[in-house]
């Protein structure tokens, strides 16, 4: 098979047969903002195990050198193994870095849960594997900085969880690549201390938050909470003291066991431990891994039954996520997203759609019982909506739009703006679709879901609110 000719080649969509270094592209496997992933095999070794070849979309992208450095420094079964790296020269002359990892035949975490309906025991084992991967990173002074469900693959052959996409990671003495108050990452998974820092210093261009291993553990807690409840945890509203310092009193969200009574008590306690507002209460990755492994070894009826109730056969249901869509209003997410999406976000609460998987309703007494239970879990006390003493951090809360699956037209939400009689929306950037006006964005599925948008044909659409915000710069005329 001949390599396609010249300037027609696009790093984001290379056709099969393209040569990249000593590798031959077999198929496109995915893509993101900075790179595309291909299944590839070594040239003249077609029967060799395939690799996952990640190619930079931008010439000389420094993020790729950072990911190669991280993968070369840390070796663990739950981290991808680096097989090769190099530079691919586009026929037009530009140089694009690439690297090759072992090919993982698996599914993203939330999609895997949708298919396999895991028990608390299985989730504990997966979380322990991820904690061990973080332990290996942290032992080398490295951080992942973007732990989330979309960056976890569960291998089909043995259900091993692998922590992928280290492009946002950091190792000692690495140069800073991303300007801004906060390091790269996904807003819904940011730690409370990072969000408070941004609230406190967002007007100071010289202030830069330095992520810590406990930030990775908090993100793992968000991943676990999202996995077992279908929702993202949210903080209480921040407040500022007389000295002007921002604080948080605790989590506003219910404990996982309140939202999903099938969650094992030990799993519930360990998730709350990871979500502690005080970083020191989360412990280390090694301590967390040991606690998760010990909990997984203790079998009881609650830990071995499925966490989810199957109401629609999987063969008939669209695979989008495990559990129902989130209805939370997480102010740190809105704060971090506001810089890019402020004109698009909606003030108010929008209801999502039901998912093929639902969670059993807790009995009336469960919430009270959960609040009264206390475990010796290394610093996390209580299973209910207990306030945790606070830290300090950054900006006022916003609210956002709805969510849905990817294979059907997005449904118009109550009060959403609609096209006029000629099928046109009020502004050029608004898209008429299925009787409503939408903002078409480049958000990934996870961020779209968190903002209660709708994925359709691989694109995120945010609903246009009924009344747009008034410009804050408009003069006020008093009568």
From TrEMBL:
Name of the protein described by the UniProt record: non-specific serine/threonine protein kinase
Enzyme class name: transferase
Coiled-coil zones: none
Annotated TM spans: none
EC number of this enzyme: 2.7.11.1
PANTHER family found in the cross-reference section: SERINE/THREONINE-PROTEIN KINASE NEK, SERINE_THREONINE-PROTEIN KINASE NEK2
InterPro entries in the cross-refs: Kinase-like_dom_sf, NEK_Ser/Thr_kinase, Prot_kinase_dom, Ser/Thr_kinase_AS
Record organism: Stigmatella ashevillensis
Keywords of the record: ATP-binding, Kinase, Nucleotide-binding, Transferase
Stored Pfam families: Pkinase (PF00069)
Domain Protein kinase: 23-296
GO terms assigned for molecular function: kinase activity
Region (Disordered): 396-428
């Amino acid at each position: 098979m001949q390599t396609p000719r010249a300037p027609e080649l696009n790093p984001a969509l290379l056709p099969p047969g393209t040569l990249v270094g000593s590798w031959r592209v077999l198929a496109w496997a995915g893509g993101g903002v900075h790179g595309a992933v291909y299944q590839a095999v070594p040239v003249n070794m077609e029967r060799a195990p395939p690799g996952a070849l990640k190619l930079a979309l931008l010439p000389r992208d420094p993020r790729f050198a950072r990911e190669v450095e991280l993968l070369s420094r840390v070796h663990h079964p739950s981290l991808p193994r680096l097989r090769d790296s190099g530079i691919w020269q586009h026929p037009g002359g530009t140089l694009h870095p690439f690297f090759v990892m072992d090919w993982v035949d698996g599914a993203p975490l939330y999609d895997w849960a949708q298919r396999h309906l895991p028990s608390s025991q299985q989730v504990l084992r997966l979380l322990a594997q991820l904690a061990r991967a973080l332990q290996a990173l942290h032992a080398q002074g490295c951080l992942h900085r973007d732990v989330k469900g979309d960056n976890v693959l569960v291998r089909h052959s043995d259900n091993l969880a692998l922590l992928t996409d280290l492009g946002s990671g950091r190792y000692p003495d690495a140069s800073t690549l991303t300007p801004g108050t906060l390091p790269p990452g996904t807003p819904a998974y940011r730690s409370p201390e990072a969000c408070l820092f941004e609230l406190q210093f967002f007007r100071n261009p010289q202030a830069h938050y330095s992520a810590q291993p406990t930030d990775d553990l908090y993100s793992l807690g968000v991943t676990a909470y999202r996995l077992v409840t279908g929702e993202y945890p949210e903080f209480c509203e921040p407040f500022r003291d007389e000295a002007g310092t921002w604080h948080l009193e605790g989590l506003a969200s219910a404990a996982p066991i309140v939202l999903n009574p099938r969650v094992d008590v030990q799993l519930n306690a360990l998730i709350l431990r990871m979500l502690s507002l005080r970083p020191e209460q989360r412990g280390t990755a090694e301590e967390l891994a040991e606690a998760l492994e010990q909990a997984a070894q203790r079998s009881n009826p609650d830990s071995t039954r499925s966490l989810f109730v199957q109401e629609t056969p999987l063969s008939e249901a669209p695979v989008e996520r495990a559990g129902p869509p989130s209805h939370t209003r997480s102010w740190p997410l809105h704060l971090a997203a506001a810089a890019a999406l402020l004109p698009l976000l909606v003030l108010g609460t929008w209801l999502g759609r039901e998912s093929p998987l639902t969670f059993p309703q807790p009995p009336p007494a469960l919430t009270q019982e959960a609040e009264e239970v206390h475990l010796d879990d290394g610093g996390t006390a209580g299973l209910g909506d207990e306030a945790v003493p606070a830290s300090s951090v950054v900006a006022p809360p916003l609210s956002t739009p709805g969510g849905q699956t990817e294979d059907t037209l997005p449904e118009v939400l109550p009060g959403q703006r609609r096209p006029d009689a000629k099928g046109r929306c009020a502004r050029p950037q608004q898209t008429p679709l299925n009787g409503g006006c939408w903002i078409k964005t480049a958000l990934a599925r996870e961020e779209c879901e968190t903002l209660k948008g709708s994925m359709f044909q691989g694109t995120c659409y945010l609903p246009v609110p009924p009344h747009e915000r008034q410009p804050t710069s408009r003069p006020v005329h008093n009568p």
